[in-house]
Amino acid sequence: MATGAESGRRLRVGLLGTGGVASKYAALYGEYPRSLLVALHDPFDPGAGELAARFGGRVAASVEDLIASDIDAVVISTPNPLHLAQASAALKAGRHVLLQKPMTVTLAQAEELERVAEDSGKVLALYMNSLDNPVFRDLRRMITEGVLGKVGSINCKLANGMGHVWRNRPANFWRGSRAAVGGGSFAMLACHYLNLAQWLLDQPIIRTTAIGTNLMCDHIEGDDLMSAIVEFAGGELGVIEAAWCVKGEQMSLHGSAGSFAYIDNSVVTMKADSPFIGEAIRYETPGTRVVLDGLLAPAMSDWTNPYNQHRCFVDAMLDGTPVPMPAGKGVQDMRVLDAAYRSSAGAVHVAVHVAIHVADDGAVAEAVA
Ligand SMILES: NC(=O)c1ccc[n+]([C@@H]2O[C@H](COP(=O)([O-])OP(=O)(O)OC[C@H]3O[C@@H](n4cnc5c(N)ncnc54)[C@H](O)[C@@H]3O)[C@@H](O)[C@H]2O)c1
């Protein structure tokens, strides 16, 4: 039987949620030559019809109607509390699912969703847009090839200041609810970097101690500022921080033979003992600190980027290859979020109980704790 790649078949996709960040995805599924936008559903987005008119597909009347469409996969970009029910319904109906972070609002929900996916025999993948970025691909290769020596620590901060913008939102604005978000700024923002940090080091986080607070945004229930110290299975330490009340993004990684920092999604500064030639980063002057500017993260809708995570999902489904971010990694992220929030609430160190380590290809590899 011909594979998708051989037959030229296109993955038939439905979008659940089109109004927020997903408005950037319709173009990709409509324009990528290996996918077809078949249906869209968003009960509150007046723009769904326009997206359908521009990029294809019909506007489905309900979640059930969308899932019952002639589609292979559903891309879910709805508020966090809807993820478990919507993803479960799609999987049980025989659809593959690409789901936004955080996977669910609680660890128990994430574990339940993973079981539903296993029982369905369909693929549940997590969408992590950091992996679109060739800078992080280069950094992972740098680590693997020992350009920075033995890595000892990683520091990540994602802060967007959006809490102030939300001051005049209605009381039922879902990001203002601790229960709907699954915490606060840390659940929504730090999950990007704790996922990336574990991917870069290829190690699960096994222990954390955290402090969360609401410093400036009392119109929001959850934390608007939170920091977690984390320990990886290999012994490396890290600090992961998130904030809705202040601004700025940066990630730095420190090894025995060099250091690397990526600031505000555009500037890299690094110094190492050996050269490195990557796709985005050229480092040809060992022993010298360089500043490389203009390394902007690629647009989320750019299907010509071979690392675009929507494109990679489509390719994996058609070619029968592993997805970049299998559900098991999303569950691990939820374990860390859960442990960090318990630590913050109890001001104690809390172990992350990792029963298994999920390898990049989704295989259960080994017990790590
Ligand atoms: N990967 C990223 O870069 C990124 C960025 C932002 C948000 N997110 C994640 O994406 C998800 C959505 O976030 P957002 O910022 O787009 O939120 P949003 O509130 O801006 O948009 C959510 C959309 O879902 C729609 N919706 C609500 N109920 C629905 C239902 N029953 N069926 C279908 N659609 C429904 C809403 O009408 C709205 O258009 C969240 O899980 C969030 O964490 C990811």
CATH topology type of the largest domain: Dihydrodipicolinate Reductase, domain 2
- CATH homologous superfamily annotation of the largest domain: Dihydrodipicolinate Reductase, domain 2
What is the 3D form? Answer: globular
The domain tally reads: 2
The residue-averaged pLDDT reads: 94
Helix content: 25-40%
Can you give keywords for this protein?
26% strand, Rossmann fold, GFO_IDH_MocA-like_dom, 369 residues, 2 domains, 12 helices, Putative dehydrogenase, Dihydrodipicolinate Reductase, domain 2, Gfo/Idh/MocA-like_OxRdtase_N, nucleotide binding, binds nicotinamide-adenine-dinucleotide, Gfo/Idh/MocA_oxidrdct_glycsds, disordered N terminus, 31% helix
Give a verbal description of the structure.
- Keywords: Oxidoreductase.
- This is Putative dehydrogenase.
- Pfam families: GFO_IDH_MocA, GFO_IDH_MocA_C3.
- GO terms for molecular function: nucleotide binding; oxidoreductase activity.
- Residues 136-260 form the GFO/IDH/MocA-like oxidoreductase domain.
- With 369 residues, the chain is of the alpha/beta class.
- The protein folds into two domains: 4-127, Rossmann fold, CATH 3.40.50; 151-255 and 326-366, 2-Layer Sandwich (Dihydrodipicolinate Reductase, domain 2).
- 31% of the residues lie in helices and 26% in strands.
- The protein has twelve helices and 19 strands.
- The protein has helices spanning 4-7, 25-31, 48-55, 63-67, 83-92, 107-120, 134-144, 162-165, 178-181, 185-201, 309-319, 327-346; strands at residues 11-16, 35-41, 58-59, 73-76, 96-100, 124-127, 151-160, 205-213, 225-232, 237-243, 247-255, 258-263, 267-272, 276-277, 282-283, 290-292, 350-351, 357-358, 364-366.
- A nine-stranded mixed beta sheet has the order 16-13-12-11-7-10-9-8-17, covered by helices on one side. The protein has a six-stranded parallel beta sheet with strand order 3-2-1-4-5-6, with helices on both faces. Strands 14-15 form a two-stranded antiparallel ribbon.
- Strand 2, helix 3 (48-55) and strand 3 (58-59) form a beta-alpha-beta unit.
- Helix 10 (185-201) crosses helix 12 (327-346).
- The chain is globular and about 60 Å long.
- Residues 1-6 have low confidence and may be disordered.
- The site of nicotinamide-adenine-dinucleotide has 22 residues, from loops.
